[in-house]
Amino acid sequence: MAKRKTTKSKTFSKETYLEWYELMLRIRKFEERANLMYFQKKIRGFLHLCIGQEAVYAGMKTATRPTDAWITAYRQHGAAMAKGVDSNSAMAELYGKYTGNVKGKGGSMHFFSAEHRFYGGHGIVGGQIGLGAGIAFADKYKENDNVTFCMFGDGACRQGILHETFNMAMTWKLPVVFICENNFYAMGTSVERTSNVTDIYKLGLGYDMPSKQIDGMNVEVVHNEIAAAAEHCRSGKGPIFLEIRTYRYKGHSMSDPAKYRTKEEEKEYKDKDPINIIEAALLKKKHATAEDIDNIKTKVKEEIDAAVKFAEESEFPPAEEIYTDNYEQQDYPFIVD
After folding, report:
1. Do 123 and 74 contact (CB within 8 A), yes or no?
2. What angle do CA 52, 54, 56 make, to 5 degrees?
3. Per-residue pLDDT tens over the stretch 188-239
4. N or C terminus of the chain: which is more exposed, having fewer CB within 10 Å?
């Protein structure tokens, strides 16, 4: 099966451009501040930044419904914020505070919101792929028209669970859009050095799954393709696989200096930074003035400043919280007294 035909473009409103710009800027500034707070040792543990990948989440937000489910890996602040997690609870979670998104128990990798149907943040590489299919199965069983968007990185494509899940999802025609956020380097090793298949979307073709490679640095393209994929799934035709080619400007994590790539390559991608492109489009289309842009930047800066203040003034979880929110099976048969 070949790649799906090119999705028809659509004309976007002034409001949509402004929504994209503010959301991408919020994610960018949130993570830049998190980066700073990490080096000040206010944030500890793991921290995986998605700076450069914001167009993926902004395009997904405007192309999906609030009732659709999202599940992703550990590089997940941007996805969580696009799905509705607010800056205060997100920053407090990074600080490990009780006011955090999951009471300070999850940290950077494990945001969760049943309210917004955001099902994580998962630290096990590829672990969320099977879970995403399970969420889609539940929606199909309930006979609603929700779609699950299951995201993972290029490194997770080497996991066996991807192939098992692709086969099952196609067999059962599950309403799930599998999304590989291909930023080319997994944990630090390029796709070219780890796989003979460098066009990752082709992995779906072995299961006759409609599959496509798209530009993740262009929010308009992301919106169009996500909207088309969601329509396909809602119509009962089964899953779709999108390889969204994007780029992270930072290393894999805070301990990664990213010396495995060239300055020329980094510049190439920064020259097509999605936030700068939308800012230029707003001005060119006269959807916003330079003053309007400055006002948005000021608004976002104040929001992130307030989020840091909120996190720093919040309390750590009380010791007894270690016993709450844990799964417990009363009749578990394998406990020996």
Report:
1. yes
2. 115
3. 888 888 888 889 999 999 999 999 999 999 999 999 999 999 999 999 999 9
4. C
